[in-house]
Amino acid sequence: MGIKDTLIEIFTWWNGQTMGTRFHTWRHGELVGKDEFGNHYYQTRGGRKDPAIGIVRRWMTFAGDIEATKVPPGWHAWLRHTSDTPPTKDGYQPREWQMGWRANPTGTAAAYRPQGSILAKGERPKATGDYEAWTPGN
């Protein structure tokens, strides 16, 4: 790690883990697994309950850009204590309603454009005459 990377880690939280997170992870964490994006998932060493919150503390560090949509459903469930079994364990079974990961398309050409939107493809439907404009005093 170069001096630039060290300074970025000390002074910014939006570029990855901070020095505080790195130190806490080194001191109290144990690696539970990694996902297909290279994100690392941790829990309190030995599976001990954190006395401050009464449960096992779980956290992750992003690989690369911090993008919340890059947390797969199985790992999201594990982080939020919805599932006790991390996806790296043999007994993990994804729920039938869980979808695979896909990138958040907001702000891209693949974003959802409802019918009638000025950004939607095709021609905008004509007004049907069932709309009456509001005027002040009525």
User: Which series of helices and strands comes N to C?
Assistant: HHEEEH
Number of extended strands: 3
Please tally the helical runs, counting DSSP H or I stretches of 4 or more residues. Answer: 3
User: How many domain units?
Assistant: 1
Structural class: alpha+beta
Uncertain runs are none
Mean model confidence by pLDDT: 82
Q: Give the strand content.
A: 5-15%
Main beta-sheet annotation: 3 strands, antiparallel
Described by the principal axes of the CA atoms, the overall outline is elongated
Taking all Cα atoms into account, the compactness measure Rg is 23 Å
Order of strands side by side in the largest beta sheet?
Answer: 1-2-3
- Percentage of residues assigned to helices: 10-25%
N-to-C terminal Cα separation, in Å? 68 Å
Task: Tell me about this structure.
This protein is 19% helix and 11% strand. The protein is an alpha+beta fold and 138 residues long. It has helices at residues 3-11, 19-28, 73-79; strands spanning 29-34, 40-44, 58-61. The chain has a 3-stranded antiparallel beta sheet with strand order 1-2-3. The chain has one domain.
SSE map:
Blueprint: H1 3-11, H2 19-28, E1 29-34, E2 40-44, E3 58-61, H3 73-79
Antiparallel strand pairs: 1-2, 2-3
Concise account of the structure shown:
By secondary structure, the protein is an alpha+beta fold.
Index terms:
3 helices; 138 residues; elongated; single chain; 3-stranded antiparallel β-sheet
